[in-house]
């Protein structure tokens, strides 16, 4: 049974558990934007982009409102695979009540080693309108989650904005966590300024040739687009801020998956963070690379990482002056360090 799931005791009129009161007194960014009358404008701007879709660096130019499909094969409506409190995310997102994840189907990136293949590559899921998506957000709030964690959101950004506005009118008070693979256009990320409180981007590759090799149909510009977009995210919300319980209120949390044979460019990743963001930036340097799907066809990534590779990755991060590394990553580091 999921801990905290279905928790309704001491619920407030807006559906928030009483012990969330203090953290939520911080107020999510979109409340102010709506009060200023600017949220509706953002929804319109984003929806206009669906008519000649340039929501991401693929710039397919298709009219998704008329049913045309681009690289991501996403329809005009949001398609979702699941929604539930999630306890496997970073501790600052999970707290006691869980992170309120909504997994969107389809993906604008599509890595050959994807761990969510049926959802991301095959697009399995069900289409819903913005009102129904808003209700899922409210359901996660009622179930005691600390945030609304939109997973693989890039290609459904207009739908998310539309749903946030509806959900806010119906009582949503949780911060939005934008959980992206990082293949974003910085100018589109600007549309999220004042809507998203927590950014959770991946920075998967630091070298365009590697990105081109291990992303379906290639994405040589991935490092450039991801870096510029993460810099914009950091400009908007800064370093991670948590409440006294350690639950995230706002800020950037960057994920990086260590890959075999230095494919992900971890040394360059930590150097980039230290130079372009701050040494206090929260980074999750992850060890759980698995050989999935088409990864078996690529010799350099057809194995797990070694203890030495993971220890080396964290050593580089420490040497670069990064001081806010995910605590579970540090625990794994200490464990692996004893072995090498
Ligand atoms: S969101 Fe999809 S359709 Fe739009 S540009 Fe990106 S890949 Fe193409």
Short description:
35% of the residues lie in helices and 15% in strands.
Question: Can you offer a commentary on this structure?
Answer:
- With about 350 residues, this protein is α/β, with parallel strands linked by helices.
- The protein has one domain: TIM Barrel, CATH 3.20.20.
- The protein contains 13 helices and 10 strands.
- It has helices at about 20-25, 30-35, 40-50, 90-95, 115-120, 130-140, 155-170, 185-190, 210-215, 220-235, 265-275, 305-320, 325-340; strands spanning about 80-85, 100-105, 125-130, 150, 175-180, 200, 240, 250-255, 280-285, 325.
- α11 links the parallel β8 (about 250-255) and β9 (about 280-285).
- α12 crosses α13 (about 325-340).
- Residues about 1-25 have low confidence and may be disordered.
- Iron/sulfur cluster binds near residues 70 and 71.
Segments where pLDDT lies below 50 for 5+ residues? 1-25
What is the H/E order? HHHEHEHEHEHEHEHHEEHEHEH
In CATH, the homologous superfamily goes by the name Aldolase class I
Distance between the termini: 37 Å
**Distinct small-molecule ligands in the complex:** iron/sulfur cluster
Cα-atom radius of gyration: 19 Å
CATH third-level topology: TIM Barrel
Strand content: 5-15%
**CATH architectural name:** Alpha-Beta Barrel
């Amino acid at each position: 049974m999921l801990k905290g799931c279905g928790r309704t005791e001491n619920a407030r009129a807006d559906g928030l558990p009483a012990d969330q009161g203090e953290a939520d007194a911080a107020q999510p960014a979109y409340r102010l934007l709506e009060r200023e009358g600017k949220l509706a404008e953002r929804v319109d701007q984003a929806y206009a982009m669906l008519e000649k879709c340039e929501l991401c660096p693929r710039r397919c130019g298709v009219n998704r409102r008329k049913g045309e499909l681009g690289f991501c094969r996403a329809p005009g409506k949001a398609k979702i695979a699941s929604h539930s409190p999630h306890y496997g995310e970073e501790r600052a997102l999970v707290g006691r009540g869980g992170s309120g994840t909504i997994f969107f189907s389809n993906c604008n990136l599509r890595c050959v080693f994807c761990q969510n293949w049926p959802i991301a590559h095959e697009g399995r899921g069900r289409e819903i309108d913005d009102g129904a998506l808003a209700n899922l957000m409210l359901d996660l709030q009622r179930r005691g989650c600390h945030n609304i964690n939109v997973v693989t959101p890039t290609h459904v950004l207009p739908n998310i904005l539309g749903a946030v506005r509806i959900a806010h009118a119906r009582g949503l008070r949780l911060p939005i966590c934008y959980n992206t693979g990082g293949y974003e256009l910085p100018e589109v990320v600007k549309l999220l300024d004042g809507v998203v409180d927590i950014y959770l981007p991946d920075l998967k590759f630091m070298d365009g040739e590697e990105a081109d090799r291990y992303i379906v149909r290639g994405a040589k510009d991935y490092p450039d687009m991801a870096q510029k977009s993460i810099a914009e995210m950091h400009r908007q919300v800064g370093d991670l801020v948590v409440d006294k319980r350690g639950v995230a209120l706002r800020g950037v949390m960057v994920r990086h998956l260590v890959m075999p044979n230095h494919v992900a460019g971890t040394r360059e990743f930590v150097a980039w963070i230290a130079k372009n963001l701050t040494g206090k930036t929260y980074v999750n340097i992850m060890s759980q690379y698995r050989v999935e799907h088409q990864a078996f066809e690529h010799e350099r990534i057809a194995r797990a990482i070694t203890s030495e590779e993971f220890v080396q990755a964290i050593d580089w991060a420490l040497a670069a002056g990064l001081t806010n590394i995910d605590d579970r990553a540090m625990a794994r580091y200490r464990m692996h360090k004893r072995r090498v």
